[in-house]
Design a protein that fits this description.
299 residues, alpha/beta, Rossmann fold, binds flavin mononucleotide
């Protein structure tokens, strides 16, 4: 749903032969998040954007005595003063902040190996998924959250300004991969009934991708598979993990299409000894990758 937009301020600043236009808009995102308003301050020169500042009402926690509207108005005053004083300096100070990152090529299947144990049972599941994709001549990428630099989400809500996170760590690469794929497979052990910490960091930080989709629309038709291993016996060991990962998929517009849940791993030790499991995993992956192939051929 498109947010309703209102113009708060528009100022034309003439400096010699250049004309700068400063505008401050508000967008009401209440239909998506109760009370969320985003303020965007823009400066253009000859219809080219040279500076942008955004802030939203969710950034200001209950104990912070400021509001997004107040901050955006203050910044508008400040920018207007700076442009009138020295427009060239203003342009130089803001230009580099608008540079964009290069977008990598698409990946057919992204497998997130969520266990911190590099040679454990989730690693075996991830390996089978990758080999199944390679059998079809598909390009697979594996992500190991525990080996990557992923800061925890700090709930600053600044991703709802721009669609990207304030931290410049490995999450940019991870989100690029997730955005580019048609099939996302999460392989996770059950840790205290849910996902391990490293995987949870990744899940929370994907809120930036959720914000990006909300602000500029997102890819549709992506599918998600859950492969999980629990030490103990019984399906109830997967109750939380399947909920968490399904919620993660839905938050990103990814449809959860299936799961393979392997219990009793502590007793079994090596899940390669379970009859037909490898075949089951490979066939599931091939099935959803082939669906993509069919869709591509139809298109
Ligand atoms: C910190 C920790 C917490 C765990 N919590 C659970 C649990 O709540 N339920 C369960 O069934 N197994 C639990 N396990 C066992 C793992 O799910 C099991 O060993 C699994 O095979 C690990 O996957 P991996 O071989 O890919 O590392 C836990 C293991 C660890 C290390």
């Amino acid at each position: 749903m498109e947010p309703s937009t209102a113009l708060i301020r528009r100022v034309e600043i003439n400096s010699g032969k250049e004309q700068y236009i400063l505008t401050l808009n508000s967008e009401d995102f209440s239909a998506l998040y109760p009370g969320m308003v985003r303020y965007t301050l823009t400066v253009t020169e000859d219809e080219q954007t040279i500076a942008v500042f955004r802030t939203n009402s969710y950034e200001y926690s209950p104990l912070v005595p400021l509001s997004a509207e107040e901050i955006s108005r203050r910044t508008a005053d400040e920018w207007e003063r700076e442009i009138r004083l020295n427009p060239m300096e203003f342009v130089l100070n803001h230009q580099q902040k608008l540079q964009k990152r290069a977008v990598p090529p698409p990946v057919d299947i992204v497998v997130i190996q969520g266990s911190p144990r590099a040679h454990g049972n989730c690693s075996i599941l991830a390996g089978w998924a990758v080999e199944a994709a390679q059998d079809l001549g598909r390009h697979a990428q594996v992500i190991y959250p525990h080996d990557m630099d992923v800061h925890s989400c700090i709930g600053c809500y600044q991703c709802y300004n721009t669609g990207s996170c304030v931290f410049n760590d490995d999450m940019g690469t991870i989100i690029d991969a997730i955005r580019s794929t048609s099939l996302l497979v999460i392989c996770s052990p059950v840790y205290t009934n849910t996902v391990p910490g490293g995987l949870k960091l990744l899940i929370d930080r994907c809120q930036a991708y959720h914000a990006e989709r909300l602000l500029s629309g997102g890819i549709t038709g992506q599918r998600g598979l859950i492969f999980s291993v629990a030490g103990r016996e019984g399906e109830e060991n997967f109750t939380c993990i399947t909920r968490v990962i399904s919620a993660f998929f839905r938050n990103l517009g990814i449809t959860p299409v299936g799961e393979i849940l392997v219990d009793r791993a502590d007793a079994i030790r090596d899940i390669r000894t379970i009859p037909a499991l490898e075949h089951h995993v490979r066939e599931k992956v091939k099935h959803y990758l082939s669906m993509k192939e069919t869709a591509e051929k139809k298109a």
